[in-house]
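Long-time lurker. I teach an intro course on protein structure, and each term I like to show students one example going from raw sequence to a predicted 3D structure in C-alpha cell notation. This year I'd like something fresh instead of my usual example. Would anyone be willing to generate the C-alpha cells for the chain below so I can use it in lecture? Attribution to the forum is fine with me.
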Amino acid sequence: MFTGIVQQAGRVASMTFEGTAGVLKIDAAAWDEALVLGESIAVEGVCLTVTAHRASAPGRVEISFDVLEETFRRTNLSEKPPGALVNLERACRVGDALGGHILSGHVDGVGTIVSIEPTGRDWVVTIGCAPELMQGIVYKGSIAVNGISLTVAGVEDDRFSIYIIPHTWEVTSLHEQQPGERVNLEIDMLGKYVKKYVEAMMRPEPAPREQDAPATIVGGASSSPSAEPGPKPREQDAPATMMWEYFNPMTEIDIRTSGHLPHWEQGSVWYFVTFRLADALPREVVEEMQQQRERWKQTHDLNHLSREELAEYYRLFSERYQNLLNAGSGSCVLREPAIARIVYDALRFFDHQRYDLDEVVVMPNHVHLLVKPLAGHGLTDILHSWKSYTANRINERLGRVGQLWQHESYDHIVRNEAAMNAIRRYIRENPSKAG
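-- Reply from a regular --
Happy to contribute to a lecture. Here you go:
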C-alpha cells in the first residue's frame, strides 16, 4: 500500500526489453533503511517489485524491476527514456503516517497533459483522459497522478485540473513534463468500491417472476402492484434509494410565480443563486426588463416550459441580468471588506447544518453561490434568513435604515454535473470578468 507522498525522484538508468516485457533500472539516492529484495516500490505510481539493487556511487543505489507486458500497456513506463525523472515511494508499513490517500499502485489508465499554467506561486495542470476514467474523478476528490496524491480542483467532460504547490513541483517529476506527455492515473480506491457497489445495487435482477415484483417507485411515492397485503418487509430487503443532487425529472417541482421571476424548488438539490443590492441596477433598466419579461410570460405557460423555452428565457433575461450586475453600478457597499465579511460569515454560519454550500463569491453589488438545502429546510427560508440578518448588520454598520437587498433573488436548479462545473467556473471567474 502507498499514500502518494513521493519520497524522492530517481532517474531511469536503462530499460531493457525482453519480448513484450522488460527490465527497468532506476538510479536513486540511497534510503537510510536498506532496500530488501522482493519489497514493493511505486515508480511513477506503478507498484513494482525490487528484483536487484546495488550501490552505484557513494550515497546512490541502482534498483532493478521486472516489468510485465500488462504494465507497459496500462502505464507510461515504456515511454521513459534513460535520464527521465520518475517518482519513487516505498510501500507503507503498519504505523507509518498516511499523509496522502490510500493507493494500491495498480494504475487504472493514462491521461494526457493538456496544459500547464503558472498561477502565482503554484501551477495548474489540466489532464485529459478517457470517459471510463472520468466517471471516477470527482471535484475535490483524490487522485494519484504519476504516484502523487493530489486533490481534483476542477472537472469537465473529458478532463480535470489539479493545483501543484511549489514543494510538490520541485521534488517530483511533474516539473520536467510537457503538454502532450502521458501520465499514470489511479482513481481513488474507496470511490471505485462505492461505484461498483452502487452499480450492483442498481442492476435489475434477471427475469423476475410477476409474483416477486417489488413495489415500484414513481415520483417518489411507492405503489404496490397488488392490493393484497404481503409479509412485512425486512429492513435489509429495502431497495437502495437514489440520492438526487441535481434536477430530478421524476419528482414534483414547486413553481412559484408571485414575483417577476419563476422560481422552481425541488427540495435537496443544488441551486445557483444570485441576489443583489436594491440599487445595483438603475430603475429604468429594471422597469424595461420587467416589461419585456411580462410580454414574454403572456405568450408562454410558466408551468409547462419546454427545454428550448427555458434556454430562451435564460438567454433573454438571466444572461443580460448577470452582465448588467457585472457593470458595477449602484452604491457597491459590498466592496468594503468588512461588509463583505458580514455577508460571507452569514452564508457559512449554518453550512452543513441547514444547507451545503459550494462555490461563493461576494461581488461589490451582488452575491453568487451554489447551495443545496438539507432536509427540513427550504430555499426560500434560507434566502430570507441570509438577507434579513445581513441587512440589519450592514445597515447598522453604515448608520442607515431602509431596504438593502432587492426583494427577489435569481435562482435555478442545477440540471447535471456538467452544468454544476460550468457554474463553478463562472463563479470563480466572476471577479476577473467583472473587472
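Some talking points for your students: The chain has nine helices and 20 strands. Residues 286 and 321 are 9 Å apart (CA to CA).
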